[in-house]
Design goal:
Elements lengths: L14 E7 L4 H10 L3 E2 L1 H8 L10 E9 L11 H10 L9 H8 L22 E3 L13 E7 L2 E7 L12 E9 L1
Parallel strand pairs: 2-6, 4-7
Antiparallel strand pairs: 1-3, 3-7, 4-5, 5-6
Helix pairs in contact: 1-4
Length: 182
């Protein structure tokens, strides 16, 4: 157990970005991902092709913040509901699901992550960032959202499955929205 003055949001290292979203149909967005050679796993494909995945016809921008689970005040890790509740208390918002593909298209210089050989199963890969979004369905077998990673110099937009009991590690990175602008 860690004891002491842990840095927490807003007094911690963060990364902010402004991301432009919208203006593309779902098919145009998928084509754009293909043009940039962005790879998808099965869960990412399921999210993108699901009828609940909607794209905005209107372009808009979002300010996002990237920080670790520990910087949200969980030095030992936390569940998704705990993370989302704390983020909300701190004034952070969940992101629209469509942010995942748009952020992937804008964040092409993501640093290389762990090759996966030392990963524990059912854990976020080192170097990845998970987009905090509303859950589309309570079905534990349906992807809960997207995460971004770069592995072997290939960019990925991946979907993931995690139930409400899954404990995210303190060093796992999440992206939340700071403000929504139209």
């Amino acid at each position: 157990m860690r004891i002491g003055n842990e840095e927490t949001y807003p007094d911690c290292p963060i990364i902010t970005r402004t991301v432009e979203l919208g203006g593309l149909t779902k098919q145009q967005l998928i084509r754009r991902l293909q043009e940039y050679s962005i790879l998808l796993n099965e869960y990412g494909e399921r999210l993108l092709t699901d009828e609940k995945f909607m794209t905005s016809e209107t372009k808009y921008s979002l300010r996002t913040i990237e920080l670790t689970v520990a910087y949200l005040g969980f030095p030992e890790g936390a569940t998704t509901p705990q993370i989302y509740k704390k983020a909300s208390e701190l004034g952070l918002e969940l992101c629209p699901l469509e942010l995942g593909p748009y952020l992937r298209l804008e964040y092409l210089d993501q640093p290389e992550g762990d090759s996966g050989t030392s990963l524990q199963q059912h854990q976020a890969p080192t170097g990845s960032m998970t987009i905090a979004t509303e859950i589309l369905t309570e079905d534990d077998n349906f992807p809960k959202g997207f995460y971004l990673r770069r592995i072997n110099d290939e960019l990925w937009l991946r979907g993931y499955i995690a139930d409400d009991l899954h404990i995210w590690n303190p060093n796992d990175h999440f992206v939340f929205c700071l403000t929504k602008k139209l």
